[in-house]
Every structure is written in structure tokens, then in C-alpha cells.
Amino acid sequence: MDDLRATLGRAVDTIAEYRAGLPDARVAPVASRGDVRRALGDLRDGPTALDEVIDELVDAATPGLMASAGPRYYGFVTGGTLDAALVAETIAAGWDQCAFNEALSPAAIAFEDVAGSWLKELLGLPPTASVGFATGGQGANTVGLAAARWQVLHQYGWDVGRDGLHGAPPVRVVVGGERHATIDRSVRLLGLGERAIIEVAALPDGAIDPTALEDALGAGDTPTIVCAQVGNVSTGACDDVAAVAGAARRVGAWVHVDGAFGLWAAASPRTRHLVHGIELADSWACDGHKWLNAPYDVGYAICAHPDVHATALAYSAAYLTGQVAEREFGGGDFVPESSRRARGFATWAALRSLGRSGVADLVDRCCDIAHRFAAAFDALEGFDVVNEVVLNQVLVRVGDADFTNRLERAIQEDGTCWLGGTTWRGERLLRIAVSNWSTTPDDVDRVVAAIARLRSEL
Ligand SMILES: Cc1ncc(COP(=O)(O)O)c(C=O)c1O
């Protein structure tokens, strides 16, 4: 036990030092996947002492770590764990709780209950909605669409849980042209098949065109799921969910909102208008590991119809304490996993440490940083900001595709920051996503100066 205490102490020092170094750290790793693999050596015949295992692990991994938890990482949509959430997660790992149900861990389930209620309050969603602590946006989209699939088929007299999809009325999934690719994967995983997807034109900013949606829905004499999106991964644009929900209701469709990061706009008075009407939907996907800055992996699958949510996802077995009909749903009932990590502790700690005003401030600060990037690039010759910055995403034109790719590579190798490229409306662009709590205006100035220098050197 003393060994454990001492090694844990050293682990805490390792973590604290790593995090203290993040503001000035090189962002890109210096070792490749192959380098790290080679550093690990072969499986040994016998046991290895605790200290030695951990030393080997830290030494081998450190050169291959991406400083994505730090203030100058703008790839994908990436948060960096808040201190309170990190400590909660670390303790939770020590407690090693299984968050399947109350019998396995009353604490794990209670923290999901309470953190889930706080999330609904912050996001302005119905207090009666159910919340599944999923693995992320992909997981939460799949859960939302699983509930949707169950309900729209039920409306047509078909029990998909019992009878599957063979012979079922065809389900159509109506989506915007600029939806996130995870929606398509969820549709595939749920056996609906990509041919069930009906793509509706997007407006220039990437939001769904409500008039085109009306046309696509038509008379609506078939089971229909409509996927809206708040927070386009390139532009940050949000669908007009009120209009989407109005059109969908007319044909009895289920409305699912993919708000992996954009749903957090609801938590700030400054951005709430962008997501007006979200409360009218039937299900929502939102991430914790993006804008809330909770540790990986956590997303929230929220459903306005807890009975449908549980019917689509839950199961029971003789050896599990309590029967489905008798117990309060939660934990594994709202996600596709049984044994699962206790994600409620870290989410609760993130929300407790920030409070209502702290979450709003986090959203506002990231939006301000995005605006600062946009203003700085607009002021520089050779750079053009392409999107209207409404949230935390900035798209920058720097030249033709080849030049953009070369600059992207140079930026990543330079290590001052990390950002990626994307193709938006046929054009290769640099893409900046700001979601880390620790990014400061100074980081923006430092990054813009570095990118301007790298551009002039190409
Ligand atoms: C709109 C949207 N939906 C879904 C996802 C997928 O989220 P995750 O990577 O947490 O599965 C993302 C990721 O960036 C996203 O931006």
C-alpha cells in the first residue's frame, strides 16, 4: 500500500508538472506513433514492479503526447480538462466504480442524476428529460437516433425492438447538407442504412434551409426522423431549430438535435438566441469533453421521452438487482453499454466548479477569442476570414489548396499551436476551433504572429 501511495504521489506530481507546463509547451508531439511503439519493448515473462511500470509508461508516452489540453490547440473541437473535473476523474479512477445501475454504485448513478439535471437547466431543456452519459457526440447521436427509430416505427404500429427492421415501414432520416459525419455513421449502425438519408440543402453558412426542409418533408406519410444541428463543425452555424421543429411536427417526425458543442450556446445569455427552439426537439446530443472541458470521454444523450429512451436502450436480466419495470431508470439504461465508467463525478465537478455564470463565461470567452482570431487575420495581408464568426469556429483562406496544405503542415510542425485544415464549399481552408478554458488573448497574438511568419517563409 505504501508503494501505491508513493507512486500515486509521483503520478500527481507528473500530472501537475505537465499541466503547469502547458501554457508554454510545444503543442505538437516530437515522437510519432511508431517511435512510441518502439520505445515500449516486448511483453515480459514475469511481473514488473509498480514504479518501474509507471516510469516506463511516462518516459515512453511523453514525447508522443499532443498538448491538446493546453491553450493553443485549435484542432477538431477540443476542450482541456478543468482542474476540478481532472481531480474528480482521478479520484473516480481510484474508486473504480461501475456505473451500470444503483446496485453497483448508488454514488455513480446519483452523480449522473444530479449532473444531468444541472445540464438540462443550463441548456434550457425540459426538466423531465432523461440523460444518458454516453461516450461522446457520436455515442449520444446514436442513442438519440435509436430512441427516434423506436418511436417513429411505433407510430406506424411496428415494434423494432421485437421485430427488427426486416419488413418494417421504411424510415427516412432527413438531414442538412452540412450535418456532422457522425450522423451518417449512427444511421449505418442502427441498420437504417445510408439510403434512408434524405439530404436537404444547407444555407451558405451551413445551417439547414428551412424552406428546402418543408419541401423535402412533403406530405409525410412515412416514419420520419429529422436531424437538426446546432454548431456546424466548420462555421459554428446553428440550424433554426424552431423552424425545423415546426416543419417536423406537421408530419409527426421526431426531431433530434446534434449539438455536440453548439448546444452550450444555450448556457450564455449572449449566444442563447442562436439555439432558440431547441427545447422543442425530442432528443439532443451534447458533449462534455468539448466545450464543458470535462475529461474524455463523455457526451450527453438527452431525450424528452424517458420511456421511449429506456425502451429503446434498456435491458434486464435475472442476476441484475431489480427488474426494469420496478426501478428508477438511469446509468446503463440510457446508453448502449452495461459496465461503464462513472462519468457523472467529473461532469458534476466541472459544473460545480464553474456554476451558471462560470459556464456562460467559458462560452463567452471562447467566442471572444474566436473573434480576436478573426479580427487579427482579417487585418493581415494574405489572410481572409471566410465565415461569419457566430460561435467558436473560424475559417481562414490563405491561398490555393496546395499552399494551404503546406502552411497547415508548417504550422503543425512549428509547434506554437496546432490547427487543422478543412474543405468548405470546395475550398481548402485553415480551421480554428476554440474551446479550451485556458486560452488567453496573448495566445491569439502569439499564434497569429507565428502563422504570419510561417506564411512569409513558405
Ligand atoms: C456537430 C458534431 N457532432 C458530433 C461530433 C462527434 O463528437 P465526438 O467526437 O465526441 O463523438 C462532433 C465532433 O466534433 C461535432 O462537432
Topology diagram in text:
Layout: H1 2-21, H2 33-40, H3 50-61, H4 83-95, H5 106-123, E1 130-134, H6 137-155, H7 160-163, E2 172-176, H8 181-189, E3 197-200, H9 210-217, E4 224-229, H10 241-250, E5 254-258, E6 283-287, E7 299-303, H11 306-313, H12 344-378, E8 384-385, E9 393-397, H13 401-414, E10 420-424, E11 427-433, H14 441-457
Parallel strand pairs: 2-3, 2-4, 4-5, 5-6
Antiparallel strand pairs: 1-7, 6-7, 8-9, 9-11, 10-11
Helix pairs in contact: 2-3, 4-12, 5-12, 6-8, 6-11, 9-10, 12-14, 13-14
Bound molecules: pyridoxal-5'-phosphate.
How would you briefly describe this protein structure?
This protein is of the alpha/beta class. 43% of the residues lie in helices and 12% in strands.
Overall number of strands: 11
| Coarse structural class | alpha/beta
Spans with pLDDT under 50 lasting ≥5 residues? none
The radius of gyration over CA amounts to 23 Å
Give the strand order of the largest sheet, numbering strands 1, 2, ... along the chain: 1-7-6-5-4-2-3
Strand content: 5-15%
Global mean pLDDT? 96
* Number of helical stretches of at least 4 residues: 14
Q: What are the secondary-structure elements, in order, as H or E? A: HHHHHEHHEHEHEHEEEHHEEHEEH
Shape: globular
Largest sheet: 7 strands, mixed
Which key terms come to mind for this protein?
458 residues; alpha/beta; globular; binds pyridoxal-5'-phosphate
Description:
This protein is of the alpha/beta class. 43% of the residues lie in helices and 12% in strands. It has 14 helices and eleven strands. The strands form two sheets. The protein has a seven-stranded mixed beta sheet, with helices on both faces. Strands 8-9-11-10 form a four-stranded antiparallel beta sheet. Helix 13 packs across helix 14. It is globular. The model has no long low-confidence stretch (mean pLDDT 96). The site of pyridoxal-5'-phosphate has 15 residues, from helix 6.
